[in-house]
């Protein structure tokens, strides 16, 4: 620990330009940070940047942005070059797929391309920060920074301390999240899925078991109950479609947890939710039910 961990953050590198990555880049740029958005393929970077641009434009259209969207976009640079993205970064936020080896490999490359004062964060939603950090030279530099989808609309961020994370890193990450005008929740127990997803997964899974067993009247029942009776913004199946059914199933498989058949059969049929146009619901045909 060289005493530079609490350093001021000006430049943020976000690795992974998918729905979480581009959203994290967006909220960082809106808060005034210079941002690098990096992915491994030019097309991924372009897609992420287009979504970011759309979202910033939408916020501006609705009067929810304090400045010209072009000024926000000027702070975002894109690249496929890892060294370029992280070389001058004060904070690196990783938002690549939920694959332990892939994340470990990426952080090894990031360590080689950054100085020891750069703070490293993972947006993992299901893996332990300690496990991701286990093969790094400096596990004290790495913390969890778990955003929710879509980052630009969701207020909560879990800031997770791995078993070896330095206190200064946690404090800096916490302050960074506050500077995004979001609400950080400190998680000191580095368990798989942290706090929120340990609560959220049963919310999404239980109606799946009911559907499998014929105990629910259909997909709309649980969603309607939660939205119209409980005031949730989305019901469990709608939320699963929103996040991607493949991601949900992959996460459960990773821990050898059972998955309701309704989820698995949709993934097997490549009906992955909103992103493919069909999941529990059909988004191309007036949002009717797709899973009977
Ligand atoms: N950027 C900018 N604008 C957006 C946007 C975005 N990312 N997403 C939606 N909008 C716009 C819409 O286009 C719409 O504009 P319009 O009125 O001109 O058509 C406007 O915002 C209103 O959108 P909606 O009517 O769809 O709904 P709301 O604004 O009320 O809310 C929502 C959208 C925030 C997504 C809300 O439905 C919600 O909170 N859903 C639940 C999300 C949630 O629970 N996320 C957590 C998932 S779990 C997770 O992330 C864990 C992780 O580990 C995977």
TrEMBL record:
Stretches assigned to the 3-hydroxyacyl-CoA dehydrogenase C-terminal domain: 194-283
The keyword NAD belongs to this UniProt entry's keyword annotation: yes
Keywords: Fatty acid metabolism, Isomerase, Lipid metabolism, Lyase, Multifunctional enzyme, NAD, Oxidoreductase, Peroxisome
Superkingdom, natural source: Archaea
Localization annotation: Peroxisome
Keyword Amino-acid biosynthesis: no
GO MF: (3S)-3-hydroxyacyl-CoA dehydrogenase (NAD+) activity; enoyl-CoA hydratase activity; isomerase activity; NAD+ binding
3-hydroxyacyl-CoA dehydrogenase NAD binding domain location: 11-190
Entry's Gene Ontology BP terms: fatty acid beta-oxidation
Record text on subunit structure and interactions: Monomer.
Family: Belongs to the enoyl-CoA hydratase/isomerase family.
Identification of the protein by name: 3-hydroxyacyl-CoA dehydrogenase
Residues of the full protein shown: 1 to 292 of 651
């Amino acid at each position: 620990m060289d005493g530079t961990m609490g350093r001021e953050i000006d430049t943020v590198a976000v690795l992974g330009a998918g729905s979480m990555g581009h959203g994290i880049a967006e909220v960082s740029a809106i808060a005034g940070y210079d941002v690098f958005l990096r992915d491994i393929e030019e097309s991924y970077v372009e897609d992420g940047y287009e979504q970011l641009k759309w979202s910033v434009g939408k916020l501006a259209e609705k009067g929810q942005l304090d400045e010209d969207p072009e000024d926000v976009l000027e702070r975002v640079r894109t690249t496929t070059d890892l060294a370029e993205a992280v070389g001058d970064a004060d904070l690196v936020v990783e938002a690549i797929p939920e694959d332990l080896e892939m994340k470990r490999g990426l952080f090894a490359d990031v360590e080689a391309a950054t100085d020891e004062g750069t703070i490293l964060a993972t947006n993992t939603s299901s893996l332990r920060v300690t496990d991701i950090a286990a093969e790094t030279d400096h596990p004290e530099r790495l913390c969890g920074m778990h955003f929710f989808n879509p980052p630009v609309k969701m207020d909560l961020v879990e800031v997770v301390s791995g078993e070896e994370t330095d206190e200064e890193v946690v404090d800096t990450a916490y302050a960074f999240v506050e500077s995004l005008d979001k609400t950080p929740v400190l998680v000191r127990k580095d368990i798989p899925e942290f706090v929120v997803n340990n609560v959220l997964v049963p919310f999404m899974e239980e109606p799946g078991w009911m559907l499998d067993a014929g105990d629910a009247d259909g997909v709309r029942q649980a969603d309607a109950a939660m939205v119209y009776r409980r005031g949730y913004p989305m019901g469990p199946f709608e939320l699963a479609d929103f996040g991607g059914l493949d991601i949900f199933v992959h996460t459960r498989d990773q821990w050898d947890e059972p998955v309701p058949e309704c989820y698995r059969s949709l993934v097997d049929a490549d009906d992955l939710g909103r992103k493919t146009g069909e999941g529990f619901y059909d988004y191309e045909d007036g949002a009717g039910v797709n899973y009977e």
